[in-house]
Structures are given as structure tokens and as C-alpha cells.
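2024-03-11 09:14:02 DEBUG pipeline.ingest accepted 1 chain
2024-03-11 09:14:02 DEBUG pipeline.ingest length=80
2024-03-11 09:14:03 DEBUG pipeline.predict start
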Amino acid sequence: MKLDRGQVAKLLGAPTEQVGSVNDPRTAVDYGVKWNEMWVYRDPEGEGFDRVALWNRYDLLGVWRVFPGGRAEPEKLPAE
């Protein structure tokens, strides 16, 4: 089962920043996926990494932990 926008917001809270929007026709590629909306969480747990959730319209493409220096690792969310 894929998580929807409301479920992700409930799990992760409100993002610190948002890049793009659900209706933005512009796309970018990061972490190997093409997205049009990014939710950014700046060091949400005080553990030294940021979290990003990437979307293509209403589809969650994934969530990544992004460490200083740019290293990123995928993060599995419950029911994802």
C-alpha cells in the first residue's frame, strides 16, 4: 500500500520547506527519481540529517535521509 499525502503528513508532520507543488509542471531529478514536489524536513529529530519526501503529483516516490556532505539513504515509512 502506498501512502497518500495526508498519511505522510500525519507520520512526518508539516515540512520545514516545500519546493514545487502538486500542480507544478516543472520536474527535477534527485536520488534517482523524477519529481515535481519536495517536502523538506530540516534535522527533524536533531540527529544530524535532513529528511526529504519526493512526490510526482499525488504519488509518493520515496523518503530519504540526507546527511551533511550530501550522502542520502532511502527511508522506509510504515505501510509504504
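2024-03-11 09:14:41 DEBUG pipeline.report The longest helix spans residues 5-12.
2024-03-11 09:14:41 DEBUG pipeline.predict end
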